[in-house]
Write a structure and sequence with these properties.
By secondary structure, this protein is mainly alpha-helical. It has helices at residues 5-28, 35-60, 62-92, 97-128, 132-149, 162-170, 194-218, 224-236, 238-245, 255-276, 297-321, 326-336, and strands at residues 183-186, 189-192. A two-stranded antiparallel ribbon has the order 1-2. Helix 6 (162-170) packs antiparallel against helix 7. The N and C termini lie far apart (51 Å).
Amino acid sequence: MELPAWAWALTMIGLASVVVFDLVMAVRNPHKLSTKESATWAGVYVGAALLFGALILITEGPQFGGEFYAGYLTELALSVDNLFVFLLIIQSFKVPDALQSRVLLVGIVLSIILRGGFIAVGSVLIERFSWVFLIFGAILIWTAWGQLRDKGGHDEDMPQNGFMRFAESRLRVAPDYDGGKLSTRINGVKYVTPLLLAMLAIGSTDILFALDSIPAIFGLTQEPYLVFTATIFALMGLRQLYFLLAALLKSLKGLSLGLAAILGWIGVKLVLHGLHENQLPFINGGEHIDSIPEIPTALSLGVIAGVLTLVVVANAIILRREGKTWKELFAEAEAEQHVPATAGAEKL
């Protein structure tokens, strides 16, 4: 894609404006979003992504349009799976309803910053070294195998990473929240509040999320503009999507297995592409292997959309057999997700 500098600048300004707007709304009016409000805003963000993809399709052609949609669907699916980890962190720290939106937004902004950095580095690497595709492919295949090995399940008792263990051992943590403050004083002694630790926990896990998502998107398109926009669009509505889906993730069956299939597919695609563009001297004398087939983007888009559709249909069938409706499940999930505003940080 040959895009002028003004197109990049306009895109960056537009996406940054949306993120800033979301940040201002979360700070000015901190509250737990209702199902209706979450669904409305999530629909707006998804609709915006679909319209942006249509614009790419019209102006740049079906190849790049298909790459954007494939990348966006994959990143969105990975983001939904990551919401389960966000849910565990928020429940573990007993974040009050009014502060959950703020914690989520901090995590999402950090995700955007980290992914932006990884995209820049990844773009330079794949431009110069084709063997990076083999490494990215191996990462995705290993991740897919890990999902299958765990049978698509999630650990309800999420272990802390090394960064969080270090932070808790070095910081004096207050036993309770103090509104939206990150620090407070008790008997003249300064403490950090559990709110700060919750933000640090989500921020530190974002690094792990990027290790899966960035190789996945590069497996579908090597255009930096499409990689960046597809990733940001998938993250922009995550705060609203959390309140719509977070508690439902415990009832959602097969998402991780579906992601394993998608990541495995993209991993194989990356390995094949890396071999096709081979530069390694110990493989085929460092020459390209033209006999290695390339998986077309249209086929990948069909596989990704098909797997996600299968997950949704399977869950609809399971609900029907249990005599439940999506509306009833949303109501149950919303009730289970409630955290009293006076909740403390008992885990600490």
